[in-house]
Specification:
Elements: H1 3-37, H2 43-69
Amino acid sequence: MTQQDQDSLARQRFIILTVLRASGVALMLLGMGIIGSRLVEPSDLIGSIVFAVGFLDSLILPRLLIRRWRTPPNA
């Protein structure tokens, strides 16, 4: 793999992680908005589920991807 290929792969992975984290934060804000606005019923349940999905999306999934993408040690 050339240096240019490695740079391109690293850039793509960085963008994926950034979009994943940003979408998770947006989902958490949406969940908090649903809980606070009481526009849908049961707002506590639906808002909590949306918030939990956003939490997983922004904090847990990026760590799993980073662990999966980590370069294996040289043998």
